Queue: 3 jobs
Job 1
Amino acid sequence: MAQRPVIVDCDPGQDDAVALLMALASPESLKVLGITCVAGNVPLELTQRNARRICELAGQPDLPVFAGCPRPMLLPLTTAEAVHGKTGLDGSGLPEPTMALQDRHAVDFIIDTCLSAGDGEITICTLGPMTNLAVAFVKAPQIAGKIKEIVFMGGAALGPGNRTPAAEFNIATDPHAAQVVMEAGPPLVMFGLDVTHRVITTPARLDAITRIGSPVSEAVTGMLTFYDRNDPDRYGERGGPLHDPCVIAWLLQPDLFRGKQVHLSVETGSPLTMGQTVADWWGVTGKGPNATIMDRADSDGFYSLVVDRLSRL
Ligand code: RIB
Ligand code: CA
């Protein structure tokens, strides 16, 4: 498989951390050009710090990490320390990073990288609020032609939200950024709650990660133990969903997932449903598809891939 050049935009976050580790463990498939950080789960100064801690855990301190937007485009920043802890990476046991943060702004890195690439060459993965990518499209709309696809964790097409009754956290945090991205042109591949709630880190799956017996698996076990969103009534079994790694798993093994091409848009007017992702699942609007929305996953195959990639580091 040829290396796919990717930029990973994230708000680490324990699940972001697992996604980053999987990406960094897959050089035969992915060329991670850089990691761009955004405010989301925790403020920007913590997400960029955590991204650097994860790069060092993966043994890749030379990977460029960039800080981006410290707040959503219009809404005030709302964070999720209750889920991820005060540091955003509680449970990891990781030390302070020693690798430097890049001076360039994340938005400028996204723009510069896309403008120097060939048409349709770059894959953008977003694992948090889409603020950085949206601002890049506003500043340099011509980057759209350089982007192969935007593969993102966010939204909920067929069910309720997790931040509000209508909206998933990443989209609810910056719905205006999501609208800019959805209207920018590149094809979208959406990993929303419809599919991420089908990949649950059960005790047996967490044990399989722990049995790797490495510093990486020790840190991941600590993170996922802290991040335990255990709610059998909600998820149908013990454990919680592993959202962000679905994005990387699809890039590595697309047959683990199944979805449908539909028109996708986002609510940015109603206070009640702000950030709701609206999928025209039955084509009633007549609008052409702009997104593939994933709704099925091979969860055993997914966790086998997670263990395989973490075992490489
Ligand atoms: O709703 C789940 C998403 O919100 C994940 O990306 C998680 O890291 C948080 O950012
Ligand atoms: Ca995230």
Note: The first strand starts at residue 4 and ends at 10.
Job 2
Amino acid sequence: MSLIVKKFGGSSVANAERLFNVANIIVDDYKNGNDVIVVVSAQGDTTDDLIAKAKEINPDNPSKREMDMLLTSGEQISISLLAMAIEKLGYPVISLLGWQAGFYTDSHHGVARIHKINTERMKAEIDKKKIIIVAGFQGINKYDDLTTLGRGGSDTSAVAIAAAMKADRCQIYTDVDGVYTTDPRKVKGARKLQEITYDEMLELATLGAQVLNNRSVELAKKHNVELEVLSSLERKPGTIVKEKVKMEKTLIRGVAKDTDVSVISVIGVQDNPGTAFKLFNSLAKKNIEVDMILQSVGRDGTKDISFSVKRSSSAEAIKSLEEIKDNFPFVDIKCANNVAKISTVGAGMESHPGVAAKMFEALYDSDINIQMISTSEIKISIIIEEKYADKALNVVHDAFFN
Ligand code: ASP
Ligand code: MG
């Protein structure tokens, strides 16, 4: 007998038919003698619809407390309906809101972090042999106000329960059947991975793989909770996310594309100590995240510095540099929005040279020019012109996986 935590995303519980499908998956585990705790998201696009309703009332800034009051209602609907479906199948079940399940968070409405989970209630219900359905993405702060964990936060709720209850398994059900080597909608030869490490998953998640919420993977790594990502629509094994996995012959685990990128070039800055500090400090003060940085060789006492940011923060970044121009002279600022980032990720590249060369060769063969490069132990990213992004994704993927 095991304790199994299962999480179902919004599309998996979108309507009555899907709810009964999920109820059957849960009941099958329960019938086999397991204890089951289930976390669910709001049905379908409920959360987006609720946000739209709030905007009708106040398009600018409804208070964050009231937004949380509103958004937590989406999960209240899905947990009660799922519990009713399980009741209908004839099994003992109880639904719990985040606070009833013992989720205590800080007070950062909309992006709250879990402080602790008081597991008493869940343990008591398990002792009564009940299936527990918990509302994902929510908790309560020390003032007894409802909080939410940020978009996609139900994954984090599930991992947190698995860690707190020392579950034997944590399964994240979604509408894809696992994690792929690249976007299967864009690349024909994309393959499903059997296993992936937390670190690789984190890189792919930030790069836009969008199967698991980032914070949930960080939490799983911290508490060493093994995750399985699988489909609620097909009954077959998914992808396991864990600390260490077997290296495959391919050396890399995946290739990702990110088009939410701009490259800003600051031309003709002084070539002396403090220049990089002034530039990036002004961005840091505005909380603008910088990804890649490239500095040209100095000539005649000046140099150029280019960096990449999320496209949505490029205007703010330029503004912030113009604001410090008195103290930070430069000749010109250029911003390129027609760029994309392609990254290969894999823990194996650490011990195997040649991954970068292979990636660059694939791009050379397709006549795609590389504008910027950055590497870490498990990732190589390049910036190219956006119009070549899908092509680059395909040729780089083929180079490693075909
Ligand atoms: N319903 C919330 C959202 O759409 C939480 C979640 O889906 O995990 O962001
Ligand atoms: Mg959702």
Note: DSSP finds eleven helices and 20 strands in the chain.
Job 3
Amino acid sequence: MNITITVVQNSPEFGQPEKNRAEIARSVLGQSDPSADLIVLPELFASGYQFDSRAEVEDLAEPEDGPTFRFLSDLSDRTGAVIVGGLPIRRSGGVSNGALAVYGKTLLASYDKIHLFDEEREFFLEGVRPLPVVATPFGPLGLMICFDWLFPEALRSLALSGALVVAHPSNWVLPFGPQGMILRSVENRVFTVTANRVGREERGGRAPLTFIGQSQIIGPRGDIIVRAPSDAPALLRARIDPEEARSKKVASRSDFFEQRRPELYLSLLP
Ligand code: ACM
């Protein structure tokens, strides 16, 4: 069954969550046909990325059922889509760099990023729960956030847990992410949906960050189904059949998930 995926590439203004959310709503709902099965938004899509103090993180953090949940829930009601997007989530003892998957009034999953990138390590709690795979009307959906991609184990865990499509909210700054995700998709034979942002942040005397856009949907055979530009907001839309990711058979006698040799790989671990 074909499904429609919308990917939002925005350019948020730091510390202006209401304005950033409103812009996304305008752009998604302004399409001639806003309906979709899955909508993916970037990491920290409404808060902005480059925090300068823990106080700032605390100030922009929200509970799981806060304004971002209500925004995603409302957008889900209006589009019929499962929606995934990133936000700073208030947890006991601090704030995570998190993502929510929302369908109507239901919180399908909340995820706290387990591989924090660079300056994030000053500000966020490291996630301690496994990467989630949730049931959706179009099959199992996995979640990971940005830098998680560089740990092959992350997407492998999601694929081994049955994910056919992986939503990947991102704030990519490293240039090799978009190409790297092609191999990740091939080696797990899953669809990956990366929503990145564009723009520049330079806050608190820190080194400037330029976000590289290139939001994309990659197919299980490594095809670039759609990719956005590197320097402008964009809305991508594509139709895919998640079932194409079900079989891991690449030749008549080679199902590469069945052929794994974990007992031998384990000997490489410390
Ligand atoms: C990143 O994980 N935001 C690079």
Note: Helices lie at 17-29, 54-60, 67-79, 120-123, 152-160, 177-188, 262-265.
